[in-house]
Design goal:
The structure is a homotetramer of 346-residue chains. Chain A has 346 residues and is α/β, with parallel strands linked by helices. Chain A is globular, with a radius of gyration of 20 Å. Chain A folds into two domains: 3-143 and 312-326, 3-Layer(aba) Sandwich (Rossmann fold), CATH 3.40.50; 147-308, 2-Layer Sandwich (Dihydrodipicolinate Reductase, domain 2). Chain A has helices at residues 13-23, 43-46, 77-88, 104-110, 146-160, 191-194, 208-216, 250-261, 282-285, 312-326, and strands at residues 3-8, 28-34, 57-58, 66-71, 89-94, 123-126, 140-143, 169-176, 198-202, 221-227, 233-240, 267-269, 291-297, 302-308. Chains in contact: A-B, A-C, A-D, B-C, B-D, C-D. Chain A binds chain D through residues 13, 177-179, 181, 183-185, 187, 189-192, 194-196, 228, 230, 344-345, and chain D through 13, 177-179, 181, 183-185, 187, 189-192, 194-196, 228, 230, 344-345.
């Protein structure tokens, strides 16, 4: 069986990563990549890692009929085009935030409303480690956001185990790479201004809070910092589990995290031990669909960590994972890339 | 008036920075730099920025008599040698943690005890923005630690203004450069392993907590991450001021921070505004003795930021600042270096 | 058919990369990884990308019998142990310089002699793009060195086309990443000293000159600089082809390079065109076994460029490529990893 | 005596550095900074290191009368405005290439001609280490370019000593930081694309060749690579001195370089010795007006190195140095900043 796939918004970073994954995927055949700006250029012109690929960008207004259409477009584009996407494809896998929340009211509160609210109910949120219900056969898949993914993977085992309760205090302090700013970027993304930074760029009120609250039932305080790497998102979640004060120990935490993830193909637990790499680090998973997840505890606090490649597990890899599930394929198909060691600032 | 000064432990990073500052200081004359490992080599052999300096490392066992002895040695060396340091110098300015806490009990709790507890009472803690009492004429000055300095500069205005109370929840999430690991380093500090990291290296129980609790009366949760820069420490303090929930606004915060720091020569407030640089960033103060301090508020949380150069305001610059005060000199003498723009990962 | 393979020196960077490649190779089964220092630790303890691998380091003194033994040991170790390696394995693939030159005299001139010169004649040099003669069935394979590989891939088409003659002037200016310094490293490799450098570390007399002269018949001037990346080697070869002065144009060069490499699976030509990526860049091939090769010409000079991942095409990938050829396997088996875009300093 | 100074083009990187230097200069009073884009914003809005400076950008069309006008504008702006600049100021110090060559013919050959050729004769080229003739009292000073400065400082001693003759082969291989691309930048300067590169961006035909040929009488082959740093330019000059083949040794080179630079306040010779820092490195001089210069020799080649901070010695520092000479001030006035150690990628 071969399924056809197209990528809309293929000149961006997540779009390029989709091209990388789909062009080597055992079940999908990549048939179209759109880009208004680079129409008729080869995809290798923009993505130098894909020079061998014999494919040119086409006009997003002329979509081929496909089994799966991956939309890697800026916020607002998918909701404006959802009808034509669904005309062209059996399944839309959307990487933007346009279909992640489940009600128009939520978009009114966190964004500037929604222009196609009638489709919200048809959309299935996809962060498979949180649950796979409804993904098989879904016609709109809303792939989880990068910072929310890292945060929720760190916290989910604490919630599942009843250690973390809805009203417990949670602070999520994120450190992310420059690829989150997207291709092009402005002055803040230029190399001289962006190099070597520890830059708080969303100190309060980040929109991913909404996604996390909807999925995990937790209200949390969220702050994002830009640091000097290109790929990667690392979440440090400082939690204060009132029901577990002074009683939760390392063994309980190992138990909670193993219960949550022992069957997950893309989660790797890293918590202590010797050597250089003792806790989750984004560079250990760069280029892969893996998430490293770990924890540490002191008297009244549990610190939960997660590290992902924001372009992979935080975007394109997660979308392909969701598509594998939507079409009933092997979950890990096309997603078995290994990480590198040593590796710099990937 | 010229005062003589020596640096013990001068081949390390803080020691080298002391040489840089003292060799250009208008009131101190640098007369000795010790290093067991590099005895007889020029200081420029180790510190390439100081090649013009006509000075060679000498044996730390043979100390010249000086007005001020700066000790930039690893933990434990100063307490072992305090007597000989005080024999050689009128004033000891110690950059290690050996005299920062005020009781033997505290060293038993946080460290492996103390070998010269009788000197603890004579020592004056120095982070001048917290208070200058007792610094003039002090004979042992315990210069504040880098991560504690960043954290306390962020929080102090909230404490002073009564917004943050002793039992309020405070999470300090630190991001620091590789120079904190010291010269030499091991495998974890090697460039291939250390480049591009977001690495939690002290997830819980960092010793700086003791220093902060002693100085600010706050109990806090402290986690330190290594990130890809050489100089710099950035503290993001997530605070939950129970007495100010829902009432504290940006104007109150500006007022609190201005009250705390308006006369401070080394503090620069940065909170919002437009452009690329809206909050404190270590690279904006690299090479200087400045601290950038700022804040943001949402409903129930105040996020307080501070960024310093850990080798300067977090070590050598702070020590020279303290020495200026101890000897009754102009506070800013020798500490007026400007930052750079653009600058990479300084 | 499955062939068994072992890696001696498996805790180093090239050794770890061999583990990565062999553990996912369709024809080799990885059965042993040795490390004196980390005996009994899992390979994931040292190489965090290989945490899923169920394999522990063993004592290099106790070698399993295998089809292929890959030696990734420091200079001198392979020549001291060649006998036991050949006892254990049908084929030794050596990644060091110990068997790259073909005579004891050459080792006397460029190194400190050779302790097993009787094996030199049995060794086959392997940089497959220079020639595959003798590789099939070889029992000692001397895999080409990283800097020599980049340099020779840039120059070979000019030699083949008769544009560059043996006495023509060639300057090779190399820029390399910190992984070339190996795991561990000393002060010069520590992050604070190694970050942000452009550091000439072998201004003249680099030993790779010998390898290049032996293979290409060119005498060249070779200078190596450390720059801020972890993986990667980029060669800029400034050549002055006396026989082609003023006559050689871009079309001739395209012709020469296409002739040389059109059937090569691991060479990608990149020379001009628009966009950001116009010439070979190491980061475009990081993590892959690809070499990017390109050129530019002015009146009397041809500048030839090549960029590789020194750990892959410059070490482990090249060795696996050679092993594929030695055992008559598909050349590209296990070596089809894709590069990333964007990617930082891989 | 206080001289007034203005900076035109003050929101760029060289312009900002001029503000830094002039605001702390003992003899100049900074009275105006122009920027069309940021008119009325504080200079600290763009240059975070200058937040303490009480100065706002003004319209470049309304110039104050000053003693010295520094123009840090893109190529072509100074030639278009030279008349109004000279109306406003006694002395124009131009940092662009607009007045570096001495004839309209040269601008026709290397650029797109010149719109104010009648001023070319009045301009004095300024790279003080090459000669100070004509600088005192000059009314148009053409400050030397960054890459040309590094290259010429490396080569000049060889020319002066008669070791390098006009027809000798010289290859200059440059490695430069991202600040050379200027503020703003495009896609190629964005952090994700620019991080970790070794990118040949001017493989042949760089315009600085013209400047070098005019000043040193050498014809050379020039290739520029972008590497991962922000500030810095490093020149590696591979020279083949026909008159000195096989006879020139290290002692001769030391003698040549000492003769050339022993009285130069901004040149530091670095050639061999032990330790980590053996040859010129840009990070050792970052933030300073110093040039590190060094050399190494093998049989027939002399490799000459120079490293500068392109924003300082390659632009703003050189311009202030020239202004000091033009006004008869102490040469080093305002230019005694020290470098840092350790420092990352400054």
């Amino acid at each position: 069986m071969t399924l056809t796939a197209s990528v809309v918004g293929a000149s961006g970073f997540a779009g390029g990563e989709l091209l990388r994954l789909l062009s080597a995927h055992p079940e999908f055949e990549l048939v179209q990549a759109t880009s208004r700006e680079y129409e008729n250029r080869t995809v290798g012109h923009v993505h130098p890692n894909l020079r061998e690929l014999d494919l040119r960008f086409t006009d997003p207004a002329e979509l081929d009929g496909v089994d799966a259409l991956f939309a890697a477009t800026p916020h607002g584009v998918s909701m404006a085009n959802v009808e034509s996407y669904l005309d062209a494809a059996d399944t839309l896998i959307d990487l933007s935030a346009d279909f992640r929340l489940d009600s128009e009211a939520a978009y009114d509160e966190w964004y500037d409303g929604h222009t196609a609210p009638e489709y919200l109910e048809r959309a299935t949120y996809a962060l498979p480690e949180l649950g796979r219900d409804g993904l098989e056969g879904a016609d709109i898949v809303a792939s989880g956001g990068c910072n929310a993914t890292a945060t929720m993977l760190a916290l989910k085992p604490l919630v599942d185990a009843g250690l973390l309760l809805p009203d417990d205090r949670v602070v999520a302090d994120l450190k992310v790479g420059s690829s989150e700013g997207g291709a092009g970027g402005g002055a803040a993304s230029s190399h001289p201004e962006r190099s070597g930074v520890v830059r708080p760029y969303a100190p309060t009120g980040h929109r991913h809070e909404a996604e996390i609250e909807a999925q995990l039932g937790l209200s949390l305080s969220f702050t994002v910092h830009a640091v000097d790497m290109v790929r990667g998102a690392a979440a440090t979640c400082h939690t204060f589990p009132t029901g577990a004060v002074g009683t939760v120990g390392t063994a309980d935490l190992w138990s909670a995290y193993r219960d949550a993830y022992e069957d997950e193909p893309f989660v790797r637990l890293v918590a202590g031990g010797g050597g250089v790499y003792r806790y989750p680090e984004p560079k250990s998973v760069a280029g892969t669909n893996l998430a490293e997840v770990g924890f540490a505890a002191d008297g009244e606090r549990v610190v939960a960590f997660a590290a992902i490649d924001n372009v992979m597990k935080g975007a394109a890899g997660q979308a392909v994972h969701a598509a594998n599930l939507a079409f009933g394929l092997e979950e890990t198909a096309g997603l078995t890339q290994q990480g590198l060691h040593p590796v710099g600032s990937p």
